[in-house]
Design goal:
alpha/beta, 7-stranded mixed β-sheet, 6 helices, 29% helix
Length: 216
């Protein structure tokens, strides 16, 4: 009965928070209908797992609100054969969604405890096309580049040029960029080696900490 209740909540999330707000990518919607967001939040917050709000996951980090996650995934326009670099594994929820949409996900998390917990959760749910790394996400994974898509789940102080160099020609990078108190989601497409930047919605993410992000 409890699982049925969570499934109904996911359906309401997709219908009310995503479709009604302009997210129409059917692959993204199907992934968000399938992945159990409540499994990625601590027990005290499970009743709010499908609310359109960020929730704490420990280590000063949060799981992003479903609408923003859905929007950023839609902007990536992922194909089943794509390789993806995710910066900010966090709880692993978005990682699971990416794993539903693409061939392989390399995901980086600065906090070792979060990385280990997310990896364990992803394995328990059967995701085998994900590799989780603990390290400075602002530097990306140059040894694994180029990637068809890059998604950043923490606020970069400026255009993430280092990550852009790891993007495949024609690839898409989505990242929140701006000061700690308010950012803009940017969609960056690589065309003839140059960035084509389009601004999307305003948002507020935790800061990207690292050599090419905010300093601790």
């Amino acid at each position: 009965m409890l699982n049925d209740d969570f499934a109904a909540r996911r359906q309401r999330m997709v219908d009310a928070q995503l479709r009604q707000r302009g997210i129409f990518d059917e692959r993204v919607l199907a992934a968000m209908l399938k992945v159990p967001r409540h499994e990625f939040v601590a027990a005290p917050y499970r009743d709010h797992a499908y609310d359109d709000t960020p929730l704490p996951i420990g280590e000063g980090q949060t799981i992003s609100q479903p609408y923003i996650v859905g929007l950023m995934l839609e902007l990536l326009r992922l194909a089943p054969d794509h390789t993806v670099l995710e910066i900010g594994t966090g709880s692993g929820y978005q990682t699971a969604l990416l794993a539903e949409l693409a061939a392989h996900i390399d995901s980086m998390e600065r906090q070792p405890a979060l990385a280990a917990h997310a990896e364990s959760m992803l394995r328990s749910l059967g995701y085998t096309n994900v590799t989780v790394y603990s390290g400075d996400g602002s530097l990306g994974l140059p040894d694994r580049a180029p990637f068809d898509a890059i998604i950043v789940s923490a606020a970069a102080p400026e255009f993430p040029a280092t990550l852009f160099t790891q993007l495949e020609e024609g690839g898409r990078l989505v990242a929140p960029v701006g000061p700690p108190d308010a950012q803009q989601v940017l969609l960056v497409t690589k065309e003839k080696g140059s960035p084509i930047i389009v601004e999307s919605v305003s948002c507020r993410f935790v800061p990207l900490i690292g050599a090419r992000g905010y300093r601790e």
